[in-house]
Amino acid sequence: MEIKPDHKKSILIVDDELSILKLLSFILAADYDLIIKKSGIEAIAWLEEGNDPDLIISDLMMPYFDGSTLIRNLKISGFYRNTPVILLSGAEDLADKVKQMPFKIDSYLEKPFNPAILKSQIAQLITA
């Protein structure tokens, strides 16, 4: 018999593509509390209100305030430095782009991604 915690872990999802937000919601809503933001600016505003997600999933390429800028700001801050981050992107050479970033990305997946792999990565990062 599996004992579940009283509350679900929370995941902040940041993506400007409605189809990706709907897909992630469909895949993850049963197991996690999801906070959906459509831009890095919305995500930062939500975080500045004192919210503390267990994990962040962010798109890399978004207008105005992209995923790289969002994650850089989080990693520089003392408060969110250790919050695990999964980067999603349809960008070519994503692995090379992640290696060149001056901060740690916990995991990344190219779009389109395999939902089972995403769920596995989330489980590893949240329970780690």
Please write out the topology.
Blueprint: E1 10-14, H1 18-28, E2 33-37, H2 40-48, E3 55-59, H3 67-76, E4 85-89, H4 94-100, E5 107-110, H5 115-127
Parallel strand pairs: 1-2, 1-3, 3-4, 4-5
Walk me through this protein's architecture.
With 128 residues, the chain is an alpha/beta fold. It has one domain: Response regulator (Rossmann fold). Helices cover 39% and strands 19% of the residues. It has helices at residues 18-28, 40-48, 67-76, 94-100, 115-127, and strands at residues 10-14, 33-37, 55-59, 85-89, 107-110. Strands 2-1-3-4-5 form a five-stranded parallel sheet, sandwiched between helices. The model has no long low-confidence stretch (mean pLDDT 90).
Structure at a glance:
By secondary structure, the protein is of the alpha/beta class. The chain is built from 5 helices and 5 strands. This is Two-component system response regulator.
